[in-house]
Design goal:
- The protein is of the alpha/beta class and about 450 residues long.
- It has 14 helices and 24 strands.
- Strands 1, 2, 3, 4, 5, 6 and 19 form a seven-stranded mixed sheet that branches. A five-stranded parallel sheet has the order 8-15-9-10-11. A five-stranded antiparallel sheet has the order 20-21-24-23-22, with helices on both faces.
- α1 runs parallel beside α9, α3 packs antiparallel against α4 and α3 runs parallel beside α6.
- The longest helix is centred in the first third of the chain and has 25 residues.
- The N and C termini lie far apart (about 75 Å).
- GO terms for molecular function: dihydrolipoyl dehydrogenase (NADH) activity; flavin adenine dinucleotide binding.
Length: about 450
């Protein structure tokens, strides 16, 4: 048995945990980073990075099939899934090596093993006690299922989907949120027949309603089928596939069922409640400065209620390190954290939807403009349709930006700066947007809201 002492001990080496460790080290603290698997967590190894690699491969496949319309003649021979897997793993390996080097260069002590909180200042890893003046909990999330729905065999989660060594002919996907529609997009591009089952009234249901409707039209045009507003009831499986039944009696047959109903917090049996930390349905409750009910113990990332996004975790990790250092960092509300769905088409948003803005301020206090990408030169070159909707307070700042179309995720940077800096449309309208870019579409929407539309009526 041994005891090691640090200024900051971080339990969990995913996006939030390693960001906290890097920033704390940068601020002069001695740091221990405890991780039972690999530093980088779900995002790097089983989530953001590998799924986006799949989506890029899917985009290449689609462009190859359609290249003739651009005057380029190619032959599409199908998907080499082993090659796709090698490409995906090479990216992860490269990023992982880089992250390991960065952690080492910052002088962070990495401790491999399953940690358990044993007091407000100690984490037990095997026979070793790791003591910290401050503890940061960053244990991440796991793929959830529904009550009574057992994962196994042909009923899989996103982690299993990444490791499939074949392309299914028919796929049923339970859940029309980000994970579900991204895998739907990949499998459709790879040649699968896809059926999404979503209990809520829309796909990507957390987005602006007009964006969700546009997204549904785009998926329908791609031949991706979906059932909305009806709950899942049961699934049976055999050697041939799965048989899915909905509460209204509808049935769907497929090779596999992907369960994509969200992610739950990894907090069970880690000692949190025993130490006195307030919990709610497995989530760690914190104040707005991410400190738990136990002084000196903080929590970041997916175990804190709210958006489960890697970049939210990064920001919270940095925030807590600076908070411990007494720098009083600025709190960013979840509504003002950018979101991107990397399907075809992409969806990107930040700030309040029209419905949320109406609820908060009243319908007579807000206005919006929806700029159609048909008027954007670069979007026409790329062959994408879509729109950019900007919501503002009348005679006030922009409070929401909502986008759909190919590559609109790359536009979210300006959008989140506009919202978080509380810029007025008039402020942005006077700035210059390079031509021809999709970024111009944001400028056009701002020009319209400022009362001086250029390429819009």
């Amino acid at each position: 048995m041994s005891e090691q002492n640090f200024d900051v001990v971080v339990l969990g080496g995913g996006s939030g945990g390693y960001a906290a460790a890097l920033r704390a080290s940068e601020l002069g603290f001695s740091v221990a980073l405890i991780e039972k698997d690999k530093v980088g967590g779900t995002c790097l190894h089983r989530g953001c990075i590998p799924t986006k690699a799949l989506l890029h491969a899917a985009e290449v496949a689609d462009v190859s099939r359609e290249s003739a319309k651009y005057g380029v003649n190619t032959d599409f021979h199908g998907i080499d899934l082993a090659g796709v897997t090698t490409y995906r793993r090479d990216i992860i390996d490269h990023k992982y090596k880089g992250l390991q080097g960065l952690v080492k260069a910052r002088g962070i002590t990495t401790i491999t093993g399953a940690g358990r909180l044993t007091s407000p200042s100690t984490v037990q890893v095997g026979d070793d006690t790791i003591t910290g003046k401050n503890i940061i909990l960053a244990t991440g999330s796991y793929s959830r299922s529904l009550p009574g729905l057992e994962i196994g065999g042909r009923v899989i989660t996103s982690e299993h989907a990444l490791e499939l060594d074949y392309i299914p002919n028919r796929v049923a996907i339970l859940g029309g949120g980000v994970i579900g529609v991204e895998f739907a997009s990949v499998w459709k591009s790879f040649g699968s027949d896809v059926q999404i089952i979503e209990a809520l009234p829309h796909l990507v249901p957390n987005e602006e309603e007009s964006i969700s409707k546009s997204f549904e039209r785009a998926f329908k045009k791609r031949g991706i089928k979906f059932s909305l507003g009806i709950r899942f009831q049961s699934v049976t499986q055999s050697d041939e596939g799965v048989h899915v039944t909905l509460e209204d009696g509808q049935t769907f047959d497929a090779d596999i069922l992907l369960v994509a109903v969200g992610r739950g917090p990894v907090t069970q049996d880690l000692g949190y409640e025993e130490v006195g930390i307030t919990m709610d349905r497995g989530f760690v409750i914190t104040n707005e400065r991410l400190e738990t009910s136990v002084p000196g113990v903080y929590a970041v990332g997916d175990i804190v209620p709210g958006l489960q996004l890697a970049h939210r975790s990064f920001q919270q990790g940095i925030f807590v390190a600076e908070e411990i250092a007494g720098q009083s960092p600025i709190v960013i509300e979840d509504a003002n954290i950018p979101k991107v769905t990397y399907s075809d088409p992409e969806v990107a948003s930040v700030g309040l939807t029209t419905a949320k803005a109406t609820e908060k301020y009243g319908a007579d206090k807000i206005s919006s403009y929806d700029y159609n990408l048909a008027g954007n030169g670069k979007s026409s070159i790329l062959g994408t349709s879509g729109s950019i909707k900007v919501v503002r307070l009348n005679d006030g700042p922009v409070i929401g930006v909502h986008m759909i179309g190919a590559r609109v995720g790359e536009l979210i940077g300006e959008a989140q700066l506009t919202v978080n800096w509380e810029a007025y449309p008039e402020d942005v309208a006077s700035l210059i947007h390079a031509h021809p870019t999709q970024n111009e579409a944001i400028g056009e929407a701002m020009l319209a809201l400022a009362g001086k539309p250029l390429h819009a009526m």
